[in-house]
Amino acid sequence: MSRTVYVNGEYLPEEEATVSVFDRGFLFADGVYEVTSVLGGKLIDFAGHAARLKRSLGELEMAAPVDDDTLLDIHRELVARNDIEDGLVYLQVTRGAADRDFAFPEGAAPTLVMFTQSKPGLAESPAAANGIKVISIPDIRWGRRDIKTVQLLYPSMGKMMAKKAGADDAWMTEDGHVTEGTSNNAYIVKGGKIITRHLSNDILHGITRAAVLRFAREAQMEVEERAFTVEEAKAADEAFVTSASAFVMPVVEIDGVTLGDGAPGPVARRLREIYLDESRKAAV
Ligand code: PDD
After folding, report:
1. Which pTM does this prediction carry?
2. Minimal CB count within 10 Å: which of 91, 96, 255, 256?
């Protein structure tokens, strides 16, 4: 069945939705995006995603296409029109269409595209029960990973490297330390302490990360925000990743080394449960 997608003020069947060949998102990856999950027909942490979108736009001197209330209305309208119970809403803003020139165009209207992806049972994925395997790869991305741009070629290549190696995902490393996963934030647990890289321009400031660390602290779990090495990760008791689409996902193997007994650890399992419970309660 054809989806209804949103393009610049219009709700259209996906076959009829188009963007200009001169769009700077297409020509320069001059765009930013957000992914918000939907559980039980409601949006998880919409306010966090809207706030980060604003920050990404501001860092790139890009105009906001609509205000927050309108953005929420469009999200809800797409969820309703596409009958999404569990899934995702993808949003992309680009600097708009203009004749090709490296300099930012003056007065181009931003492009706003949004669509849904239905994922029935998103929160009950088998991967969460079994855990995922990751490999480590060098992080060769640009230096402003805190901005959620659509320059996703290297993360995409990283996913393929993982697949070819028989793993599920890749953790990227820089100066011997893990930055983050291809599309998630990375954590290890040692002696009950949750360790995850501190915020800087080196990683995306995950909305799920912020919520999970808040819940962990509220549950009296110890959290340390600092860089860690792959060697440290291999010797950890457990590991996990967080993102809007994976929530809290246990990691059971790093570069072929099994963590603990090879099953998802208690800290990851508990955090996943708390995160899903609390997020569902606060969903809009
Ligand atoms: N990815 N780090 C990177 C590089 C990411 O691409 C993402 C999200 C995260 C986690 O951020 P959040 O918790 O706000 O989803 C961290 C999304 C889900 C994606 O590209 O599909």
Report:
1. 0.97
2. 256
